[in-house]
Design goal:
Layout: E1 3-14, E2 19-21, H1 22-26, H2 33-40, E3 44-46, H3 54-69, E4 78-82, H4 93-101, E5 107-111, H5 117-130, E6 136-144, H6 154-157, E7 162-174, E8 182-190, E9 198-200, E10 213-215, H7 217-239, E11 248-251, H8 256-265, H9 277-280, H10 287-297, E12 306-313, E13 317-324
Parallel strand pairs: 4-5, 4-6, 11-12
Antiparallel strand pairs: 1-7, 2-3, 6-7, 8-13, 9-10, 12-13
Helix pairs in contact: 3-4, 7-8
C-alpha cells in the first residue's frame, strides 16, 4: 500500500551564548553544584539576556535546519512553533519567524503543550503532510523558560534553561511498512486533572501577567515515568515492535532521574538513550529537538536507524513519535 510519509531532511539547534553553571546559581540562591547534580544531573544551562526573545532562538535553529535540508524558506508550506513562552500574547511566534526567514507563502502558527510541545507539533505537521495539505513543513521547539521562573524557588529555578531546536519535514512516498523512512506514528495524550502538579500561577485572562512556574516535583516524577513508558509502549505496539528494536531513544530532557527511571521500566539499555540534560537543563519544548540534533551531528543517528522521541509536560500532556531516520 502506497502512503505519504514525512521524512526529516534537516535539523538545527541553537542555545543562547549566556551560560549559567550550577556554581553561578549558588551565588544567587541557596544551592550547590552537588545538590543540583545529584537530584537532576544538570551541570549548566543557557539563558537569554535582556533583549533576546523566543523568536530569536527559533530563527537561528530554523536557519540551521534549512541549511542542512538545502532548502529556501519559500519552499516551505507551513511553520509550526511549539512554545510556552511566546514573544507576545499575539501574534504567534511562528508568524514572526515566518517574516524573519522571508517566507511569503503558506501558513504559520504556534502549538502549546508545554514540554510535550515538540511532539505535538511534529504530529500536527505529519498529519498536514499525510493528508496532502503540505509538502514541506518546518517544526520548531523554542523556549525562554528563564522568563517565567521564580528565583526564590530553588526547587524549580535550577531545572530550566532556554534554547531552540528545529526539523524540516518533506513529503515522500512510502510502502506503509516499518521499513519506510520518515515518521511511522505519533501518539498524543493529556489529562487536565493534573493541572495543579505543574502550572504557572498567572495568565492573560486570570492575572494579566505571565506568572511563575509552579511544580510538585515528586508527584511529577512519579507520573512522568509511568506516562512516558505508556506512550512508548503505545507507539511500539502499533508498529508491531518492542522497545528492544529501537536504535535510539530521544527523551524530553527534564531530569536525569526520569530518563534513568523510564529506561529501567522498559529495560532500555542506557547507551541507547540520548541524554543532553547536563548541558542545557530542561528547555521544555526545545529539549527533544536539541537532543535529536546533538545525536545527528555527532554521528550516533545514522540513515535507517529507528528513533523514538518522547516527552511529558504540564497539563498533563505527553506523547511519543516513532520515526526511521
Amino acid at each position: 500500500m502506497s502512503i505519504t510519509r514525512s521524512i526529516v531532511v534537516g535539523c538545527g539547534a541553537y542555545l543562547p551564548a549566556n551560560v549559567v553553571t550550577n556554581a553561578d546559581l549558588a551565588k544567587r540562591i541557596e544551592t550547590s553544584d552537588e545538590w543540583i547534580t545529584e537530584r537532576t544531573g544538570i551541570k549548566k544551562r543557557h539563558m537569554v539576556v535582556d533583549g533576546e526573545v523566543t523568536s530569536d532562538l527559533a530563527v537561528h535553529a530554523a536557519k540551521r535546519a534549512l541549511d542542512m535540508a538545502h532548502m529556501q524558506p519559500d519552499e516551505l508550506d507551513l511553520i509550526v512553533v511549539a512554545t510556552t513562552t511566546p514573544d507576545e500574547t499575539f501574534p504567534s511566534t511562528a508568524t514572526k519567524v515566518q517574516a524573519r526567514l522571508g517566507m511569503t507563502r503558506g501558513a504559520a502558527f504556534d502549538v502549546q503543550a508545554v514540554c510535550s510541545g515538540f511532539i505535538y507539533a511534529l504530529s500536527v505537521a505529519d498529519n498536514f503532510i499525510r493528508c496532502g495539505q503540505a509538502k514541506a513543513v518546518l517544526v520548531i521547539g523554542a523556549e525562554t523558560m528563564s522568563r517565567i521562573l521564580d528565583w526564590n524557588d530553588r526547587g524549580t529555578c535550577v531545572l530550566f534553561g532556554d534554547g531552540a531546536g528545529a526539523v524540516v519535514l518533506r513529503a515522500a512516498p512510502g510502502e506503509g511498512s516499518n521499513a519506510d523512512r520518515g515518521i511511522l506514528n505519533t501518539k498524543l495524550f493529556s489529562d487536565g486533572r493534573m493541572h495543579d502538579l505543574l502550572y504557572t500561577d498567572g495568565g492573560v485572562s486570570s492575572t494579566g501577567t505571565a506568572g511563575h512556574l509552579r511544580m510538585q516535583g515528586r508527584e511529577v516524577f512519579k507520573h512522568a515515568v509511568t506516562n512516558i513508558a505508556a506512550a512508548i509502549e503505545a507507539s511500539t505496539q502499533e508498529a508491531g515492535i518492542t522497545p528492544a528494536d529501537i536504535d535510539w531513544f530521544i527523551p524530553h530532557q527534564a531530569n536525569q532521574r526520569i530518563l534513568d527511571g523510564t529506561a529501567r521500566k522498559l529495560s532500555i539499555r542506557p547507551e541507547r538513550v540520548v541524554s543532553t540534560v547536563s548541558e542545557h537543563g530542561n528547555t521544555s519544548a526545545a529539549s527533544v529537538p536539541l537532543a535529536l540534533c546533538v545525536a545527528v551531528e555527532d554521528g550516533r543517528i545514522k540513515r535507517g536507524d529507528l528513533v523514538l522521541l518522547e516527552a511529558m509536560g504540564g497539563g498533563f500532556t505527553w506523547g511519543a513519535a516513532l520515526l526511521r531516520w
